Amino acid sequence: MAEVPTTDPTPLTGELLRQWLVLGAYEETRSGGYSSSIVNADFFVSPDGRADPDAEFVAFERLIRAFANRGEHAEVLCRFPARLSLLRRHGVLPPFWGDPDCPNFEKQNRPAAIRSVSLVFASGYFDNPSSYYGHVLLQFNYVEGVTNQRALDSGLNYGADATDDPASPFYILKGLFGGYTASYTRNNQFLHTYLYTNAQLRDTWEYELDLTSEQLRFLVEHAWEIGFAQFNYYFFNDNCAHRIAKLIEVATGRDLSETHGFWLLPTQVVRKLRADGSSDPFVRSESFNPSLKSTFSTRFGSLERNEREAFAAFFRSSDREKAQTVGELGSDLLQVMLDYLDLEVAKRTLLEDTEDVLQSVQRQRALLLGEMFRRPARSEDIAPREPDVSQSPIEMKPPSVLRVGAGVRDGRGFQTLSYRAANNDFLNRPNPGQEVSRFVMAEVDLEVDRGSVDVTNVVLVDVVNVNTNPLPASMTQERSWSLTLDYAPRNRLCTHCSSFGLEGRLGKSVRPSERVLFYGFAGARIHTPDRDNYLRLTSELGSIVNTTERSILKLSGEASLDTFTGETDWHWGAEFGLELGEHSDLRVSFEKSGRHDVALATFGYYFD
Which whole-number Å values give the CA distances from 543 to 477, 520, 557, 574, in the listed order? Predict the structure, then answer.
């Protein structure tokens, strides 16, 4: 091979510069320079590579020439296959160039066997508020025709390198303020599907992307090289949604991470698969993987009344009675019972329940499995009901909402304006498989009355987990809970009684049918002085009714006890929400306390 002569470095300008900056996760600084969001210095080949993309480019080009001339640094070049593809595309590679042999990249990725890539969305999971807006990852789909190949498809995940419990306040606080580093990790499809659908009780949706062969290869290459990088993790704006979206953007040039604020949520990225402004379709196919919870709920809902009664009677009976009656149960009912026990094992494991409780559940599973094995094999199974396509996250409302309204309080008119940075409340449709809940991330409410503008409500965090399941109330052990940190009035009837406070409540919720939910809460609010009082005891009873496919009604009654004066405020309310379209809804509410009442109608516009 002829030696490549030493020449001046290739100019790093134009489209080559733009794409080089993207591959290195460089961002422009206020001083006009650049800094990479990759925090580990050993990712770069130049000592100044993190802050100087030109120095990184020169150093990398020098390695290329050393390899072309003397076969040196192949192991370093093999870490950056996307860089090599970029330079090949722009004619930067020297004459007589031959690609280095990269056995690790080929063995671990098998790029020639990858037929497509899918974006996977996982819904929020059991009792973990930090997951309520979902999670996204990539899945590399390999050629079919190989036994069990589907289970070995490769998943690429991004998340915080954290050791704290994801449900703990420390996890949320560190995630908000960059207390963790984060990185990409690889596992196979079986492991990540099991983790989400079975262990964490999350539904997953797979969106197979329509990529060209060149785009697919470039995405696989960049996913490999970015796997050597570490980043600082921020829950709102440098999270799984941001980093997974960037991988797709690098390969396709589509914008999936644009947002009106400083945050980016997984649901926004999923929505942009359809609404990125491009005229050509980007999603080739869509599939749904139900969680244990969704599968059980669907199958239990299909049981006849006498089967539900037999279900409840079996689990209320003693171990001896179970053994005597199990042979009388139908095979379909046995399958639903096994689903229930599998669900209990998953939930008990997540809650780190006592070993004796888990052993009791496992004894019941063994009894049911033993009975099923004694029966003739069946060719059919009870398949979960196909999901409603309109409930796919790609069709969900955008997460942020701006509301304008007009109301009357004790005969006097007023106007309102409010903004929520991320919206998920009782009158919204939850993500598929996710129970009705409320998780509001930042809200500001203004009220205009006779020319004066008052800030009436500022929400920092408002989480309500009703946590129900379809079982009879006598069989459920789940507890509902809520946590709110805000500056707010006791209710909309009180115009000048806002205080800053922290409120926590516990309760119970039951769902007698798919369309009706009843709930009750009791707790306390610690707050800044309000008539010399720092503590109020609160309680609420209510119901949420899905009146139609596009409308929801909430009825509630609340009591608030002033621990300083002993006075109790009683407050009654009704709120009706009507979905007008993907980006809008109408809400009408009425509240009453004693002789005072207030009515309000608002129009909401939803956006990303």
Answer: 19, 9, 10, 10
Residue range(s) of every CATH 2.40.160.40 domain in the chain:
397-607
The pLDDT of residue 506 is 93
- CATH number at 397-607: 2.40.160.40
Contact 72, 66 (CB under 8 A): yes
Per-residue model confidence (pLDDT) at position 4 = 47
Element (H, E) at 446: strand 437-449
CA distance 479 to 245: 36
Alpha helices, H only, 275-417: 292-301, 305-316, 319-325, 331-350, 355-373
| CA distance linking residue 248 with residue 270, whole number of Å | 12
Diameter over CA atoms, the chain: 95
Cα–Cα dist 225/229, whole Å: 8
Quick one: tokens of 358? 């888990």
Position 471 scores a pLDDT of 65
Note whether 222 and 24 are within 8 A (CB). no
Q: Please name the helix (run of DSSP H) or strand (run of DSSP E) that holds residue 560, with its range, or none.
A: strand 551-562
Phi then psi for residue 58, to 5 deg, are: -60, -45
| β-strand pairing of 114-122 with 204-209 | antiparallel
- Taking the model in full, what pTM does it have? 0.83
Q: What is the pLDDT of residue 83?
A: 95
Cβ count near 448 (within 10 Å): 14
What six digits make up the tokens of 276?
A: 């990125």
The candidate with the shortest Cα–Cα distance to 428, out of 165, 132, 18, 112, is 132
Supply the DSSP symbol for 390.
G
Per DSSP, 144 falls in state S
Instruction: State the amino acid at position 302 in one-letter form.
Output: S
Rounded CA-CA distance 67/376 in Å is: 65
Residues in the chain predicted with pLDDT less than 50, given as ranges, are 1-5, 147, 382-389, 432-433
Q: What is the model's pLDDT at position 439?
A: 79
